[in-house]
Structure formats: C-alpha cells, structure tokens
Design a protein that fits this description.
The chain is an alpha+beta fold. The chain has three domains: 85 residues; 65 residues; 137 residues, 2-Layer Sandwich (Heat Shock Protein 90), CATH 3.30.565.10. The protein has six helices and seven strands; from the N terminus they run αααβαββαββαββ. A five-stranded mixed sheet has the order 2-4-5-7-6, covered by helices on one side. Strands 1-3 form a two-stranded antiparallel ribbon. A hairpin with a 2-residue loop joins strand 4 and strand 5.
Amino acid sequence: MGKINRISLSLFWLVLTVSLAVWWFTLGLRQAKTISELSLALGEPNEFINSELLEKQSRMIWMEGTFFLSLLTLGGSVLIWFSYQDLKRNQLIQDFFSTVTHEMKTPLAGLRLQVEGLMEDLSENKEYSNLLKRALKESDRIESQMDKAFYLASLMRSESLFIEKVSMQDIQHSLQETFPNVEWSIKQDTILQADKRAFESILSNIFENAYKHGLASKITVSMNKILKEKDMNKIKISIQDNGRGFQGNISQIGKPFIRYSSTSGSGIGLYIVKQLVGKMKGNVYFSSSEKGFQVLLELPIYNSVSYTD
C-alpha cells in the first residue's frame, strides 16, 4: 500500500462511516421533528398523522441510531487495534531480520579470514584445499542471503537510501574479486547518482541470478548512450549473460515468492533489484532471448559523458 498504512486506512474508514451514520441519523430526527410540527399546525384530530405514532417513531430513530453509531465506532476501533497489533508484529519481525543480519556480518567476516588463512597454510594439500574452497563458497552464499534479508527488511520499513557520487570503476574493482568472470566493457568512468552499497547489491543479485538460475558461464557489463529525461541525465547499463534465458512470463519477473519452475528461486533477488533501482530514481527492464538473459538499468548520473550504442 506504499506509504499509506493499514492504520490510516482503518481510521479513514471509521471517520467516513461514522460521519455518514451521523448525517443519516440527524436527517431522520429532523424529518421526525418536521412531521411533528406539521401535525401540531394542522391541529387535532387529524386522520393522517397520529402524534403518538410520531413520538414512537422518534424514539425508535434515537435508539436504532445510537446503537448503529455505537456498533460502527466499536467495529472501527477494533479494526484499528488489530491493524496496530499487526504492524507491531511486522516491525518486530523486521527488527529481528535487521539485527540478525547485522550481528552475523562480523562472525562471517572472521570465518572467511580464517578459511583464507588455512587455504594459504594448506595450499599443498589438495584434499583440505578443496574442502576449504567449498567452505569459502558456502560462506559467500550465506553472506549473500544475509544481504538479501537486510535489504528486504529495509524495503519493508520504507527506509531511504544514502544517495551519493558513485564511480563505476570503484564498483567494478569492488565486485571483481567476488565475480572474477564478469567482463566489464567500460570505456570511460562514469559517476552515478546512487547508493554505493545498494548498487553493489543490485549487481550482485543480477550476477548470482545469471550464474545460479541461468547457468551462465559469461556475463558482460556494458554502457550505452546517455538518456536525457527532463532535468536528469541517465546512463544505460546493460548486463547480458550467455545462459539459458528465462522460460516464462517476463512480466512476472521482479515479483517476490513466485516460482516459475522447479529449479527457479524465490524471486527475492530480482525483487530487491527492482525496488532499489526505483528508490534511486532509475528504471530496470528484463528481456530474454536465445542468446541469454539481459537486464537493462537506467540510472541517474552526475557527469555528462557521451557514449555510443
């Protein structure tokens, strides 16, 4: 529901329904009063209007109106209370994910350093070396999942990003060690208007998706010409792999917890990509062909460097 939470909607519903009920209640009382005054003006006896009947109907309107208003107020209050409790429960879950993610970072980093140290000491022993490589790979996988949990929790809390100047060459150097097989076709450095950590997470999720689910052996990152949109210049960043592509409805990509096949993932990775790019005022497009899967990013830049297709 975006920024409008359930408590706001519940409160709006309560105010609206109670206002309508009060209006109808007041209208009914006014009509009863008007009929009563008309009865007195016509004088007694009157074969069409019975004063006792009017008084009885007036009391009935009072009782039914009061009961109806009380019921609406009680129902709306209960709905608001349940919505508040649900939001508190969701907040606790999000805080739990954030805390666990943060607390796990340090021991994971320590474990990685120890494994790397053991790999150097036992480099001559193939058996132990292979086991340590697998341990290091599993450590990277766990860290990647923790990053996804962190960003998923922050997206659920609608936290804002730290937008700064980000160099594409810095991003390349930062990710080259984790993804050494990615080919970067960057002719000239470009300064993006983005959140550095979020942008690294975007590219990491795209690379992991290509290797794990697309079974790609090669990924190419290239830049195309700048797009001019109103007062903002954007650069097009293409991430193309040589995997098996996507077999399914391309419009469903980016929706979380939707499985397209028995071998597909949960969809959280590309969902995070889509949400983070949107927070950085960019656009993301997915396409698939016989050549593989392609992700096209359009992100704001600071400098106006010219590129060609």
